[in-house]
Every structure is written in C-alpha cells, then in structure tokens.
C-alpha cells in the first residue's frame, strides 16, 4: 500500500528527525565528541582548495587524488 501525504517535504523532515532523535544529542553526554564541526570543515578546506587547482581532472582521477591526498595527510612520515 502506497501512502499519500499532503505535504511530502514536511513528512520527510518529520521522519528524518524522528529517526535521528535517539542519536541527535549524544555529544552532550560524551566529552570526546566535539560540539561543532569546525575542525572537520577546516580539515577538508585544504582538500577543496587543492581540488580547485586541479579542476580539469576526470572523475576517476579526482577520486584517486582525494584518496592519495588523505593518505599522505594522515601518514605524513611516509
């Protein structure tokens, strides 16, 4: 049976929040989880800047570039 909703977007948002609610505020009880994503955004800003310099790469070459970039970023001594 297919359900029909008057406002599909509202129903999708409600369902998303309802399903995410148990895990939504885990950072309040665990001090190891950062409260913002600023560090993560800063980490990927460098990658975005490098990809902009190589904007002519094909999709597969971009994937390989990201793979190697993250490898060398996480293993600087190699």
Q: Into which percentage range does the β-strand content fall?
A: under 5%
- One letter per element, helices H and strands E, the order comes to HHH
* Domain tally: 1
The end-to-end span amounts to 56 Å
Radius of gyration: 20 Å
Let me know the number of strands: 0
What is the helical fraction, as a range of percent?
55-70%
Largest beta-sheet characterization:
none
Low-confidence stretches: none
Mean pLDDT: 86
Q: Identify the overall geometry.
A: flat
> What structural category arises from helix and sheet content?
mainly alpha
Instruction: Count the DSSP helices.
Output: 3
Give a quick set of tags describing it.
mainly alpha; 78 residues; single chain; 0% strand
Could you please describe the fold and organization of this structure?
With about 80 residues, this protein is mainly alpha-helical. The protein has one domain (about 10-75). About 65% of the residues lie in helices and about 0% in strands. It has helices spanning about 10-25, 40-55, 60-75. The termini are far apart.
């Amino acid at each position: 049976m297919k359900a029909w909703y008057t406002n599909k977007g509202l129903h999708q948002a409600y369902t998303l929040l309802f399903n995410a609610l148990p895990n939504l505020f885990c950072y309040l009880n665990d001090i190891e989880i950062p409260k913002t994503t600023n560090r993560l955004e800063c980490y990927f800003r460098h990658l975005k800047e490098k990809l902009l310099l190589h904007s002519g790469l094909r999709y597969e070459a971009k994937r390989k570039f990201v793979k190697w970039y993250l490898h060398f970023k996480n293993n600087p001594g190699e």
